Amino acid sequence: MKEIIINYIESQEEEIVRLATELIGANTVNPPGNECLAVNVVEKYFKTHGIQYDIFEKIKGRTNIVGYIGSGNPILLVACHLDVVPPGDGWNTDPFKSVVKNGRIYGRGASDNKGQMASMLVLARFLKENESKLNGSFLLVGAADEEKGSSLGMKYLLDECKVTADFAIIPDVAHNMRMIDVGEKGALFLNITSHGKQAHGSTPEKGTNAIWDMIELLNQLKNIKFKCLSHELFTPPTLNLGTISGGVATNIVAAKCEA
């Protein structure tokens, strides 16, 4: 069966590229998410190939889709997320219009996580065509909100929508998909606001610069030593400063700074 599946997937390369291109073209940068745009692509594919599905939304537009193939236990759940991080700088092409070059697809989400979703959709089609041979159920999830903690995605599906499984596979970007992980580090997101006192830039002594105070704090955080020990399966804890903004004009002492 393994060889049959591999040969089938390889024969569907053009279809996988087509699906990945459509998914990449759905701008689902989180925030705001708008995963409904990518769900439209998945839903159309499910309908075309007779795959039953449900759609779940905790907030309008923050859409999840779950496809069902087979029946009974055990239940294998495969989850790909449909949201992406902002494209950032350095692109030579539109990040939401995929480009195929030298055997690679370039576009926001190509490797995290829409390329994987495209491949899983083709796998779902294969399993649907061979549904009578399955000893159990296969669930394919297109999830929202993974990039911001999954409270509108997998957590919502598991805690509030009664989506359950005996086993799960998450085909995400870690180790370039060449190694199996059995766990993942958690994440803590902090928003910090520094408040100062506004004054004219020519008389800074009359104010309190919130940016300078923030810089002092951030330098302390940069040198923090984590007390917890890393688990043997994970790399050590890390720290990242993602954004910083403050002030309203170059000639005004900043009364507020956020990071």
Main attributes of the structure:
single chain, 259 residues, alpha+beta, Aminopeptidase, Alpha-Beta Plaits, 2 domains, 5-stranded mixed sheet, 19% strand
Structure description:
The structure is a single chain. With 259 residues, the chain is an alpha+beta fold. The protein has two domains: 2-177, 3-Layer(aba) Sandwich (Aminopeptidase), CATH 3.40.630; 193-258, Alpha-Beta Plaits (2-Layer Sandwich). 28% of the residues lie in helices and 19% in strands. The chain has six helices and twelve strands. It has a five-stranded mixed beta sheet with strand order 1-2-6-3-7, covered by helices on one side. Strands 8-12-10 form a three-stranded antiparallel beta sheet. Helix 2 packs antiparallel against helix 3 and helix 2 packs across helix 4. The radius of gyration is 23 Å and the shape is elongated. It comes from marine sediment metagenome.
Q: What would you say the CATH architecture of the largest domain is?
A: 3-Layer(aba) Sandwich
Shape: elongated
How many domains make up the coordinates? 2
Strand proportion: 15-25%
Roughly how much helix do the residues carry, as a percent range?
A: 25-40%
Q: Biggest sheet, open or closed, and with what strands and sense?
A: 5 strands, mixed
Number of strands: 12
Find the CATH topology of the largest domain. Answer: Aminopeptidase
Strand order of the largest sheet: 1-2-6-3-7
Task: Estimate the mean pLDDT confidence.
Answer: 95
Instruction: Please report the number of helical segments.
Output: 6
What structural class is derived from the secondary structure elements? alpha+beta
CATH class of the largest domain: Alpha Beta
Order of helices and strands: HHHEEEEEHEHEEEHEEE
Span from first to last CA?
Answer: 52 Å
Runs in which pLDDT lies below 50 for 5 or more consecutive residues are none
Radius of gyration: 23 Å
CATH homologous superfamily assignment of the largest domain: Zn peptidases
